[in-house]
Amino acid sequence: MAKTDSTGSTWRYRWAHRQNERRHRTYRSAEAAWRRRDDELRRLRGLAADLQGSAAAGAGLPLELAPDEVVLWVWPAAQLVEVRHTAVLPAPDLTVHPEIGPPRTRRPDGIRVADAGTAVITSRRLVLLGGRGRRDWAYGKMTGLAHDPAAPVTLIQVLDRRRTSGLMLPADAAADFRFRLTLAFADAIEQRATVLDQLDELIAEHAELKPFRPAVATPGQARLSALVPGGRRTVAIAAALALLVPAVLIESGPSDPAGVRAVAATPGVSPSAVPALIRPATAPSAPAPSASPTPRKPKPTASPSSSAERRCGAPVNPMGYDFCGGYRIRKPAAETCDHFDCAQEFWAGRGYLVQCRDGVVSLTGGSREACAGHRGVRRTVWT
């Protein structure tokens, strides 16, 4: 026997069942995506804490190590790439960008493959042992480093080489290569703790985004609009048509072709019904004397307002800084404090831009003392 409510109907139970199925599908999909990123962040955190190289890891490689040099990672399938045109890369930094999916495998335009061989990350340099020789990129001579976000290509500039070059790895190995290279560079400048702090912050921020289990829909929450195919949207369209069609007829007149076209183009109106809709109920009156048409003033077009900009609660500012996401700001513009409430000793900070819990912004993001005296970090400022 089918379940019924107090009115003896079953449609409310069917509606509740469909709603619960839809809510749980959405929740399971969101939770799976959240868990994948959480697992990846925690994996990187463990790798950053435990990664220790050894000279034995490079056994069998035609590479002579310095007395204090150790091998951190080896990958046998890498390609040496060179940039055809001169390019200026951003300075190396310690920003971690966890990637959930592998990038595309197509080589970017303007990049040519010059050699192939084994990539080796040591505590002092990145090395390619290729078929045409060896290529070294010493961390102490790096002036530029860039990871292509859409392709597994990493480009490097060093002081002793004019041409920009780098490595292209298989797509499934690119993320690990980039992270280990960041750790090796951090060790070279004695800043691994900064990477650990950054990962701790990313894990804490991600924990706050965990999706909540949806509430259970009950038959009593069903509305009569659920009986109409399309639900509330269909009811809203029908109400809009009820107001739109008379207005079109009044504006155009019974013999105006534009009115016919407007009514025929209205969603939900059958073309066969157009003659009946525009047929006059009474005989048309005599045409009024023609008068010189009065030009209508064009309606001013609404310009994009600053309230529609993507800021996620950040104050209006010409720099484009927001709380939505993007890239961390380590060198803020000089006019930052004209638009944000800056903390005391703001320009003495050595980190990236964050907003503290009391509302001020500070340049101490990524450090253990971030927003000290301001109740801690609330969120990151992005560009």
Helix and strand arrangement:
Elements: H1 11-50, E1 71-83, E2 111-122, E3 125-130, E4 133-138, E5 142-147, E6 153-158, E7 165-168, H2 171-188, H3 192-207, H4 232-252, H5 257-264, H6 274-278, H7 336-339, E8 352-356, E9 361-365, E10 377-380
Antiparallel strand pairs: 1-2, 1-7, 2-3, 3-4, 5-6, 6-7, 8-9, 8-10
Helix pairs in contact: 1-3, 2-3, 4-5
Q: What would the CATH topology of the largest domain be?
A: PH-domain like
Q: How widely separated are the two ends?
A: 60 Å
Oligomer: single chain
CATH class of the largest domain: Mainly Beta
Q: Let me know the average pLDDT.
A: 80
Q: What structural class results from the helix and strand content?
A: alpha+beta
Count structural domains. 4
CATH architecture of the largest domain: Roll
SSE order? HEEEEEEEHHHHHHEEE
Task: Give the helix tally.
Answer: 7
**Main sheet: which strands, in order across?**
4-3-2-1-7-6-5
The Cα radius of gyration reads 32 Å
For the sheet with most strands, the description reads: 7 strands, antiparallel
Helix content: 25-40%
| C-alpha geometry | globular
Biased composition (Low complexity): 293-307
Region (Disordered): 281-313
